[in-house]
UniProtKB/TrEMBL annotation:
Residues 2-233 form the ABC transporter domain. It holds the Pfam family ABC_tran. GO terms for molecular function: ATP binding; ATP hydrolysis activity. Belongs to the ABC transporter superfamily. Gene3D superfamilies: P-loop containing nucleotide triphosphate hydrolases. The keyword GTP-binding does not apply. This is Metal ABC transporter ATP-binding protein. PANTHER family: IRON TRANSPORT SYSTEM ATP-BINDING PROTEIN HI_0361-RELATED (PTHR42734:SF5), METAL TRANSPORT SYSTEM ATP-BINDING PROTEIN TM_0124-RELATED (PTHR42734). It comes from the Bacteria. Keywords: ATP-binding, Nucleotide-binding, Transport. SMART domains: AAA. PROSITE patterns: ABC_TRANSPORTER_1 (PS00211), ABC_TRANSPORTER_2 (PS50893). It comes from Leptothoe spongobia TAU-MAC 1115.
Amino acid sequence: MLTVQNLSVHYRGIEALTAVSLTLRPGEWVGLIGPNGAGKSTLVKAILGLTPYRGKILLNGAALKRQRSQVAYVPQRSQLDWDYPITAWNVVMMAQTRALGWGRSPNSKAKKLVSAALDRVEMLPLKNRSIGQLSGGQQQRVFLARALAQQPNLFLLDEPFSGIDKKTEAVMLSIFADLSQQGKTLLVCSHEWGEALNRYDRLLLLNRRVLANDTPQAVMTMENIQQAYGANIQALHNQNGMPFVC
Ligand SMILES: Nc1ncnc2c1ncn2[C@@H]1O[C@H](COP(=O)(O)OP(=O)(O)OP(=O)(O)O)[C@@H](O)[C@H]1O
């Protein structure tokens, strides 16, 4: 269980997060939503220990900073340098290299984990392909495989459904359902709207602070949306009563 207590993050004069408290339980699939600049990436960076913060972040009651291997991160595609000359296999092996120690050759256990992870995302046949020569959806699957091979308890995913086709979406949804069944926790930063949000067990609506933290139906009310995105946003309700923005 991940517990965030009274978390605040300041960047030179900007208050990116204020007094954020939340709990992520084993097996939960939680969507982290909010407007641009709401602090979603900042929250993820704080959990990963990539930015200084005030407050506490605990995993199963102990400080997370001593258990970083229990957290895997799948970055947004736009944040990566796709010209870097590395094969799909070696991207996934990176998680193992960290566990084995730099400079150590991968052992057979590490190779099996990498092979199984690439197979799970249906990318084993393309394992020797350079990452820059893969499609966007294939790249996304390789980075998901890297996270799987790390065998963490908590997955942090930054817009995993952005710019992917139905095939990659189906592969990812099936993996997320398996992970959830295994008691793994998934926190997904998302800019999705409408029906797509129903796939989450819970939504956290963020805008510097937690504005709502409940089921998708309970969070996506007109009042909450206007509070987070601004009073003059044009929102419509679909047939199921779920607001979407046009
Ligand atoms: N390294 C930084 N230095 C200074 N300010 C920063 C830095 N990173 C983020 N910020 C600011 O902190 C606030 C939160 O940014 P953050 O990237 O966490 O938002 P976000 O919700 O992930 O946005 P988006 O949906 O656009 O990705 C913004 O005002 C942003 O300009």
